[in-house]
Backbone:
């Protein structure tokens, strides 16, 4: 059940001598407290169309298979609710409008009120608070439209009833996910100050200048237990329902398949540059990033997103160091890493993990060799790759691995 509503470049891996000891957790083969769902699953609006949703509802129980309610429509200044459309139509429209997987909506309806299977009935009480939107923990439902008699749960008539609940509950879930990454531009809602959980990174909670960029570790406490939020979808679910033991991932997997399994590429790889030595420095460690800034490096932003934990279609990107040249080199080839130990490099361990390709949303990271100093140059930007080659200073060596572009 949800809490009260919160209105809520050229990539050069020429790492200098800043120390960094990378660690890698054990592989994750199913959803965990820190990774309830991958963003690629959460955002996939193409999993079911309206007719498929209708067939699914009919296969599960009577509550929503034949249920009709008003249809949300924007009149240019406000949302209106008129007509009579099927529950499947409302779910499909909400998924398309807000860019959320309709299967997430279905699992939420089951989690909140067992509406898919009709486990606790199909009357006005459960329809009123179908998505648990506007229903803080510990408050009883009330029988809409008698809001003057039982105004203890959905305290705003604009949120009560099946259609409104699906519409705004779905909006809230997607809003939470986008804002957990500091995306204040989503749906032009930047004027709303987001108060929910944040993933790891430096973000603003609103678009206004009064909202200063703040670094968030992604580490939160849920029910007294520490959790590191690996995906925006996970941050959204905990903002919506701030408890461990979330029922939604289990419901989702029992009906639709795994909530995770692809590459969870959510760790920002920071890019810094030191003009005096013409060197770029890249790190997934905020502590190391800050140390580099103190040593004279300028933070240029996030190069791309990688992973710091195992699971899915990921492979290790090894970090090597040559003390005589003060040069760090990255490769996802164990054989290449072993060969380079014969020319002055030591293997420091796994720097991070990257995708092997084929995962939703990934792009190739290109590898080039500097003809002058024989140091490697990596970029996720094809135009930058082509410019570097055209300059004559670099030799293109191919695709190194895959990552998520900023």
Residues:
């Amino acid at each position: 059940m949800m809490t009260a509503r919160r209105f809520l470049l050229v990539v050069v891996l020429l790492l200098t001598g800043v120390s960094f000891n990378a660690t890698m957790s054990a592989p994750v083969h199913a959803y965990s407290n820190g990774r309830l769902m991958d963003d690629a699953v959460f955002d996939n609006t193409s999993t079911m169309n309206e007719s498929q949703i209708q067939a699914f509802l009919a296969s599960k129980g009577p509550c929503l298979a034949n249920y009709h309610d008003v249809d949300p429509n924007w009149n240019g200044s406000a949302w209106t609710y008129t007509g009579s459309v099927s529950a499947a139509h409302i779910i499909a429209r909400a998924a398309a409008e807000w860019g959320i997987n309709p299967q997430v909506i279905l699992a939420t309806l089951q989690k909140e009120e067992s509406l898919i299977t009709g486990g606790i009935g199909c009357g006005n009480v459960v329809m009123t608070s179908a998505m648990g939107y506007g229903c803080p923990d510990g408050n009883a439902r009330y029988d809409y439209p008698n809001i003057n008699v039982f105004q203890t749960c959905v305290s705003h008539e604009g949120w009560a009833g099946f259609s409104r609940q699906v519409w705004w509950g779905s909006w809230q879930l997607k809003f939470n996910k986008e804002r957990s990454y500091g995306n204040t531009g989503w749906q032009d809602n930047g004027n709303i100050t987001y108060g929910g959980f944040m993933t790891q990174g430096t973000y603003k909670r609103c678009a206004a200048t009064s909202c200063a960029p703040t670094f968030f570790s992604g580490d939160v406490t849920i029910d007294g237990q520490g959790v590191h939020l690996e995906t925006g979808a996970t941050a959204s679910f905990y903002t919506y329902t701030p408890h461990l033991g979330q029922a939604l991932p289990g419901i989702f997997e029992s009906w639709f398949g795994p909530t995770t399994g692809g590459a969870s590429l959510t760790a920002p790889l920071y890019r810094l540059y030191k003009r005096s030595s013409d060197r770029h420095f890249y790190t997934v460690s905020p502590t190391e990033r800050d140390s580099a800034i103190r040593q004279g490096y300028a933070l240029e932003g996030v190069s791309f997103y990688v992973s710091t934990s195992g699971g899915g279609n990921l492979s290790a990107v090894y970090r090597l160091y040559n003390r005589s040249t003060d040069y760090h080199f990255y490769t996802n080839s164990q054989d290449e890493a072993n060969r380079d130990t014969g020319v002055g490099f030591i293997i420091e361990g796994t720097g991070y993990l990257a995708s092997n390709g084929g995962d939703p949303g990934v792009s190739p990271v290109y590898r080039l060799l500097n003809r002058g100093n024989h140091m490697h140059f990596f970029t996720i930007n094809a135009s930058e790759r082509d410019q570097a080659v055209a300059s004559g200073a670099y030799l293109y060596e191919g695709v190194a691995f895959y990552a998520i572009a900023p």
